[in-house]
């Protein structure tokens, strides 16, 4: 049972009563008349063959208030796309699949590449960006949620609680970030958020001083959660990062575009577990190691846009401050785990902190060596100004794929 405490400068909507799902969905159905709702599912084809996504789709098939479901499908050939059409056909809601590796969407991507307006690398950011474009093009929903396809503990209540703040016509929220306790199999998870992001934000506060952005970021209970929801108009202006800094980048964009009282976070699940990335101690181009570098650079870039001056000495100070704060957090998490009968391996926690400390310096060096690096994908408003028919082209490509291959 959560408390009602409001921390930081972002409104927190708690799970105080474990509200009945039928009651919650009934209210959402009533909202849908005035504010139609949609869902974005960025997926790899391999997830269709895993354990999580089939269960997720079984749950979503019972959701009564969704007007549209948009699925972004990566790493799929023609036979796999046809299989995906059959796989998602159990959904009674209107749904469309973006076959990102198909010839039609690849041709559109090449047009945008020629204009310098397309995502530069494959990944979740690119997938989400094209899905957002299709939501704008179809113009069927006013509020939309997004969550990952590898959630092993999925319940319909997660989606209902995630979309509720931006679906309720009496609320003025443009954006909602989901949060939850990362506890599964008798241990505390969420290493990057616990051992990198939170202590790094606290270290940056020491190094940079009082800063509204850092206070804002530190207000989120789980800033790396892949679940968020937003009003449709948000999609026009938001710039999506293409690397592992996606979640941090989205939060940074919302800070740039909206006042704090238009943003919130909601407790969406009692239990949450998904596939886990390897720490990648010896490979900073993969796993949690690369993730930590991308996330750290995203924070440095944002602070630099606000006038913070970084140099090698600054990064050394940040690293030293981070290291001390993170080690103190390990003791805190260990005590929390013991009191709740959970396990926490102090040795592996300290190894992660040592890796993240090294990667803070790597991120700093990369930032200084490439100050003009811009991993953000352009906003759809910008793309539409350069190619006015882009959304219509995207919609037509998706519909043509659907019509050509459905039933085959």
UniProtKB/TrEMBL annotation:
<dbReference type="InterPro" id="IPR029044">
    <property type="entry name" value="Nucleotide-diphossugar_trans"/>
</dbReference>
<protein>
    <submittedName>
        <fullName>Glycosyl transferase</fullName>
    </submittedName>
</protein>
<dbReference type="GO" id="GO:0016740">
    <property type="term" value="F:transferase activity"/>
</dbReference>
<keyword id="KW-0808">Transferase</keyword>
């Amino acid at each position: 049972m959560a408390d009602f405490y409001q921390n930081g400068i972002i409104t927190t909507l708690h799970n105080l009563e474990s509200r009945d799902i039928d009651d919650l969905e009934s209210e959402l159905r009533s909202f849908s008349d005035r504010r139609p709702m949609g869902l974005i599912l960025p997926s790899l084809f391999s997830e269709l063959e895993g354990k999580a996504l089939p269960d997720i789709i079984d749950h979503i098939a019972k959701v009564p208030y969704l007007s549209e479901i948009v699925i972004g499908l990566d790493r799929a050939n023609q036979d796999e796309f046809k299989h995906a059409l059959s796989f998602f056909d159990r959904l009674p809601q209107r749904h469309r699949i973006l076959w990102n590796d198909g010839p039609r969407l690849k041709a559109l991507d090449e047009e945008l590449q020629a204009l310098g307006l397309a995502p530069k690398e494959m990944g979740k950011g690119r997938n989400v960006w094209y899905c957002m474009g299709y939501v704008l093009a179809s113009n069927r929903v006013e509020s939309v949620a997004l969550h990952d396809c590898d959630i092993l503990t999925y319940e319909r209540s997660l989606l209902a609680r995630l979309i509720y703040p931006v679906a309720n016509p009496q609320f003025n929220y443009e954006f909602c970030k989901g949060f939850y306790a990362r506890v599964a199999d008798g241990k505390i998870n969420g290493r990057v958020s616990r051992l990198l992001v939170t202590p790094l934000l606290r270290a940056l506060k020491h190094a940079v001083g009082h800063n509204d952005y850092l206070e804002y970021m530190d207000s989120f209970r789980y800033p790396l959660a892949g679940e968020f929801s937003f009003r449709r108009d948000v999609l026009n202006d938001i710039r999506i990062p293409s690397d592992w800094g996606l979640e941090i980048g989205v939060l940074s964009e919302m800070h740039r575009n909206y006042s704090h009282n238009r943003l919130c976070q909601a407790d969406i699940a009692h239990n949450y577990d998904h596939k886990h990335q390897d720490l990648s101690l010896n490979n900073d181009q993969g796993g949690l190691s690369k993730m930590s570098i991308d996330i750290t650079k995203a924070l440095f870039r944002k602070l630099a846009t606000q006038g913070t001056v970084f140099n090698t000495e600054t990064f050394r100070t940040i690293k030293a401050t981070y290291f001390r704060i993170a080690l103190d957090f390990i003791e805190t998490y260990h005590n929390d785990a013991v009191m709740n009968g959970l396990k926490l391996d102090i040795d592996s926690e300290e190894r992660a902190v040592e890796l993240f400390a090294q990667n803070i310096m790597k991120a700093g060096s990369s930032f200084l060596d490439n100050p003009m690096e811009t991993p953000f994908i352009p906003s759809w408003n910008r793309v539409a100004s350069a190619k006015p028919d882009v959304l219509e082209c995207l919609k037509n490509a998706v519909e043509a794929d659907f019509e050509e291959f459905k039933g085959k």
